Structures
1.
Amino acid sequence: MLNMSNYYTKNLAAGRLKKCYDLAPGRVRQYLEAEIETVRARIKHGDHVLELGCGYGRVLAALQGETDNLFGIDLSVENLHFARHEFLSGHTVCLFAMDAYNLAFRTPLFDLVFCIQNGISAFGGEAGKLIREAIRVTRPGGTVFFSSYASKFWSQRLHWFKVQAVHGLIGEIDYECSGNGIIVCKDGFRATTFSPANFANLLNGLNCTGHVFEIDNSAVFCEIRV
């Protein structure tokens, strides 16, 4: 099976990744903004905030002004270079090339750690380990956030991916293999989701106290208080 982390770092990074979002239809743009607003509402001035899988800096740029202590990590050096020189130029954001499953921060440094836009699926690793790492670097009293797609958003999501495929950003969609929250492309690309039940089962297995909720009929959020 194709390693999705490699796909994002080699095939879908920097300018190509940005184009995916530039091509987003209006309803998808509404969903993307609703996710950002959900995170923004939890930030207090002075908080240290970390985004896991920050890509080309789309979300961090939108959060400028909420706090002076924004941090982002990504596996793709190309993403980070693009973010620093093309999208976050002039902004005070700390960016690091780092694996979200093995964070280099050795002590709890952050008041809010978040991974939205279905990163928990897109990263392709063990979800429990990802959440444990996020909790480990979060200060007591802080918050950890993960999100995925809501089932109600399936048709809009599939249409967005079809647009990306038409523009050659991902492979042709294999409609026979796609469904039930999973989009499969003929080049090996595979995008899954986490349902509310998936998040609840994950939290039970980790013995974490969390809150799972939906927003905008488009996104499922899992919020964990540390």
2.
Amino acid sequence: MELPVLNKAGEETGKKIQLNDQIFGIEPNDHAIYLDAKQFMANNRQGTHNSKERNEITGSRKKIKRQKGTGTARAGDNKNPIFRGGGRVFGPKPRDYSFKLNRKVKKLARRSALSYKVKDNAITVVENFELEQPKTKDFSEIRKSLGISDKKSLFILEKPSKNIYLSSRNIPDVKVLPVNEINTYEIMNAHAIVFVEGSLDTLEKHLSA
């Protein structure tokens, strides 16, 4: 597929770029997308949740009533899980949610996600640009010129840019990533993806089969 290269004012530069069909034109694999997005979210979980079980509750160990003859269920101490303020049965404990995913599956997932975005006409290519200073207004003007000011957007740069990152971080629904940090979750979560021209060569090296 061929796309025009725009400048940051949203005007065509006369250049066109050919997207690699092995990355942007494959038959998407939904299960690979699911696995990679699941791993991304699992790896971001802190897993620090914790509940107190019966042996961790502060309280008396004294038996609160006699075993028989009360007409109610037998009970030991007031840390019994059936009582208010008692311990919790099988509650959450700190754990690591991360899991392994093969590199080939991750590459397939990202190629599949990008292929979906091409089908949705959600990809734009912009010539390389830089901001002289961090200024949110300047970055907002670029989004407006590209016609994506009302869309959840992902900007993919060839390399990290402090000024572009600082200019974008206060704008809701905007994510700026260097090309070597893109992931399936962020691709699928965006409604518009903007590639800086130089990032496509690096992307091809990372995702080539």
